[in-house]
Amino acid sequence: MLVPSLLLKQLYTFGSLRNVEGGVAFSLKNRLSDATLTGLEAVSIGGHAAAGDHLKVVLADGRALHPKDISPAHAISFALKETLDIHVNMPHLPDGKHTIEVHFEAKPFGKLKLKVEGSISKKDENAIVIPRDKTDDYGEAAIKSRQQFVKEFTGAELNHITHYSIDPHTTAGNMEHFTGVAQIPLGIAGPITIHGEHAQGDFLIPMATTEGTLVASYNRGIKLLNACGGVKCTVVDDVMQRAPVFVMEDARGAREFVKWVKANKDKIAEEAESTTSVGKLSYIDCYQAAKFAYLRFNYTTGDAAGQNMVGRATFAACSWILDHYHEFPIKHFYLESNLATDKKASQVNIMHTRGKRVTAEAVIKHDILQQHMRVDTRSLAYHAGVANVGAILSGANNNGLHSANAITAIFIATGQDVANVSESSAGIIYLELLENLDMYISITIPSLIVATHGGGTGLATQRESLEMMGCTGRGKVHKFAEIVAGVVLAGELSLASAISSSDWVSSHEKYGRNR
Description:
Elements (H helix, E strand, L loop, with lengths): L4 H4 L9 E3 L2 E7 L5 E11 L2 E3 L4 E5 L4 E2 L10 E3 L4 E6 L7 E12 L2 E11 L19 H15 L31 E11 L3 E9 L5 H14 L3 E12 L2 E4 L2 H13 L1 H9 L6 E10 L2 E9 L6 H18 L5 E5 L12 H6 L2 E10 L1 H8 L3 H18 L8 H12 L6 H4 L3 E6 L5 E10 L11 H9 L8 H24 L3 H8 L4
Parallel strand pairs: 11-13
Antiparallel strand pairs: 1-2, 2-8, 3-4, 3-7, 3-9, 5-6, 5-8, 9-10, 11-12, 13-16, 13-18, 14-16, 14-17, 15-16, 18-20, 19-20
């Protein structure tokens, strides 16, 4: 089984090359898939080759083995995420970069050659370092050492940060240097009546925020929607991207490279999907500018948001491309070109979707709006037209009011990646005054990045918030997206009505930050 060279380089733990007693050592970590080590032939570091008894493999359990101890009959388990050290009996290396080559055999891959650049640098003995415990960095001793470090370094007393109910070990993979928790107030809005394809019924909405009036405002909008029969929500598209760029010698080379990529899409998809049991490569958008070939890989990612998943998959696919494309020289390659627009609002996401593209829509009754919001549909529709001109003048790429408020509060409560609000908050509002003076309103969120699995969604309080909405378990991410979109529409109606009726400032005077 062929392993692309770029992917194979992931085995090496960068920064691990070091001089040790009796020679030089470095670390490998299995970041590919479960395997067994069936042979170690030779290692070369900085041009110094070694084999046989001059090599030693130190396993995670402390066992030390020489190459003669490793064979198909005496294979060594090297499971995913396991680490091992290779020690070479040789003179110490000077500071600087050094080429490392490892010739070895592993099942099911066969003979492999790892070639990477490592470096040795001087350590600053006077550097201030946050306390860590290599054995258990989420244990009580490690946490207390960091709390004491904070106190000694800053003089601050941590009287509240240090109190929590969760097991710190559950935050491994979500938090480094765990020291405590930040408690954010959580309120509930609703219940909101959702008529979705996945979310059907009435749902309470957990919202974590420190902004006064926010929960009350959304509750007011939900009350209006419910009085008008609820909100219809539809997931229109679902796709997550990674966008590598290949730098060619000229535009002609970039053009021919793009043709080759399109012709080999099925094999590229096979390589990408070999890294995940969930992600599927749907299509590749190709863009060419100057001598650059930008490839926007588009995946479905199940219940996960999927940025890390698609990054790994695209890396594997591009590694295969680099090993197999030979028609025109590739001068440079970068896994991300900024065209996926991670953590940034962008027009490409407005047009092509990132995450879930979801629309929430409702018909607002003229008399009910008047009763609940002290504004009529004609005034609200007129106000929307004026605000659209303002959005154009501002250069905004959408005409929504404040979808970020709902999305951020729900994201914090449910363990989403809050930085994704930068993409997720774009909202396209449409109002239409009907003949009977009722009003159709919709909001389309073209890049709502949500998850019900992975990331912070499994942490204790975050999972409870998802459970509150029935959004845990397999196949619940579209349900969650529909609920979020419905709440966003409620907030748009509430704020637009408050501004149109001049209630906006008075609400903050009563409930919020103006007190």
